[in-house]
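Q: C-alpha cells for this one, please.
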Amino acid sequence: MHLNWKELLDDLVEQLDEFDIYSYRLNDGSHIIAEVYDDDEFADVILIDLPVALQSGRNGQLFLSKWIFQNGLDIDHDKYEPVELQRHSIIAKARASNDLKREYLKYNFFMNMHEKLEREDFKSMIDQINNIDLDTPDTADTDQEPPLSPEEIYNRRIKYPYWN
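A: Here is the predicted structure, written as C-alpha cells:
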C-alpha cells in the first residue's frame, strides 16, 4: 500500500482550528508549545500533549525540539499519560498562531514518522513531501535560477529530525 505523505500532511495542517494548541512562557525562561488535553481552571495542573520547546540557535534561527519525553497511547492497555504542566510555573500563556500551529503539527508528524519508519522509508517520505511538481520552462533558455532541490528546501525550513 502506497501512502501519499504530502496529502496526508496537508490534510492534517488543514485541520488547524480543531487543535487546541497553546504557547507557554515558563518561569525558567523556556518557551513551549503544546496541545491542551485538559485545562481545569481550579486544578493546579494543565494536562498537555506532545510538548515541544521553541528555541533560538546561535544565528537567531528558531527551531523546535522535544521538551519532555512522555508515554504515548498504549493500545494494548488503553492507557494514555499526558504531561502535567504546573500552573505556578507558567508566566504567560497564549493561543498559538496558525503559523506556529502548522510548524508544531509538522514537527510532531515528522517526529512520529521518524520513530516508526525505517531510515530509507523516512527519507523517501521527506523527498515526497518536499517534491514540488511544477511545469517550468528550460532554465537554459531563461535568466531564472534553477529550482531548489527537495533537500535544499528541507534545509531552509525549521529544523526537523533528520539522519546524519
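A few notes: The CA atoms of residues 26 and 90 lie 5 Å apart. Confidence is low (pLDDT under 50) at residues 134-141.
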